[in-house]
Amino acid sequence: MTRVIDGRAIAGAIADEVTTDAAALRARGVTPTLAVVVPTDDAATAWYVRSIERTAGKVGVNCRTVTLTNPTAAELIDTLDELSADDTVHGVICQTPLPDGVTLADVGEHIAIGKDVDGANPASLGRLAIGLDTFAPATAAAVAEILRRDEVSLAGAEVVIVGRSTVVGKPAALLLLAENATVTVCHSRTRDLAAVCGRADIVVAAVGSPGLVTKDHVKTGAVVIDVGTNPTEDGGLVGDVDAVSVNGVAGALTPVPGGVGPVTTILLMRHTIDAVTHPDAG
Ligand SMILES: NC(=O)C1=CN([C@@H]2O[C@H](COP(=O)(O)OP(=O)(O)OC[C@H]3O[C@@H](n4cnc5c(N)ncnc54)[C@H](OP(=O)(O)O)[C@@H]3O)[C@@H](O)[C@H]2O)C=CC1
Ligand SMILES: Nc1nc(=O)c2c([nH]1)NC[C@@H]1CN(c3ccc(C(=O)N[C@@H](CCC(=O)O)C(=O)O)cc3)C=[N+]21
After folding, report:
1. CA distance 261 to 81
2. pLDDT of residue 279
3. 170 within ligand 1 shell (Cβ under 6 A)
4. Fewer CB within 10 Å of terminal CB in the chain, N or C?
5. Residue 280 above 70 pLDDT?
């Protein structure tokens, strides 16, 4: 039987730590504050923002949601510049998708490195690549944190990441490389994905394709981390891993929902607290 890695339980343990740290800051007169900039009325974004607000409320982080209606690139950038300069704001995240014609790199440059709790500034990714103290995108950080808390050994392990996006695949590769894993990154042009994944001790699926990873991609006993969050027609959510297919083959699997997602959201809070105590991470 494949062991299910309980992301909600891991998120709960992190939440306890964050709650303690947030209370200590409040006792010192500091209200840890995360600003969430919402530049579109995308439904999935709205759900994620509500989830951030709810999690922030539980752990004692103040959440300031800034909703912009059809902003131009210049307006969005002005907002990020203001929040970056605002001493009462410790973390800033700009939600994607962005308005047409605006890229994450364009706006990310305007989030101060020390407040860049979702690693959107291109310089944050560069710092990650060369091993400087910086915030990784919360989802990539969640992948590494789940493996760490589940005590999966990384040194020398073969890790195959499917997906090379700036938000998940690439930063996850950098984080796991820093933990001394041997990392392979696959993408849509990879020849024989099943053979490459089949070598891995750890498979990370971050594609956006429901059920792409099956038992044909998984070595017996491998740990499988499913980052995918694909909406289904009936309003549910499925991952990139076919959980039925890999059951009994994978040694352990993160479920969707209840795996990487909840850990992502609480790590935004962890990063916000860390941004207070290490304001000069940049
Ligand atoms: N739980 C969470 O917190 C989060 C979950 N997600 C979810 O993770 C998934 C990935 O998101 P994201 O990284 O933003 O997605 P992107 O669409 O930006 O990237 C997808 C990657 O998958 C690769 N890919 C596509 N098809 C295949 C294929 N058939 N075989 C191998 N590789 C393929 C693409 O390759 P190429 O580069 O060649 O196009 C690309 O590198 C989505 O389901 C998303 O919803 C995302 C962010 C946060
Ligand atoms: N720059 C950027 N950073 C992101 O972190 C980012 C993004 N862009 N774009 C959108 C995706 C999506 N995302 C999710 C986070 C948590 C859950 C989550 O907690 N999901 C619950 C399920 C909820 C349900 O059942 O509907 C779970 O997996 O258990 C889902 C999705 C972050 N994203």
Report:
1. 28
2. 57
3. no
4. N
5. no
